[in-house]
Amino acid sequence: MSDEWLDTIKWDSQGLLPAIAQDSETGRVLMFAWMNRESLRLTIEEGRAVYWSRSRNQLWRKGEESGNVQELKAIELDCDGDVVLLHVKQLGNVACHTGRNSCFYRRLNEANEWVTVEGVLKSPEDMYKR
Amino acid sequence: MSDEWLDTIKWDSQGLLPAIAQDSETGRVLMFAWMNRESLRLTIEEGRAVYWSRSRNQLWRKGEESGNVQELKAIELDCDGDVVLLHVKQLGNVACHTGRNSCFYRRLNEANEWVTVEGVLKSPEDMYKR
Question: Which CATH superfamily groups domain B4-128?
Answer without folding.
Answer: Phosphoribosyl-AMP cyclohydrolase (3.10.20.810)
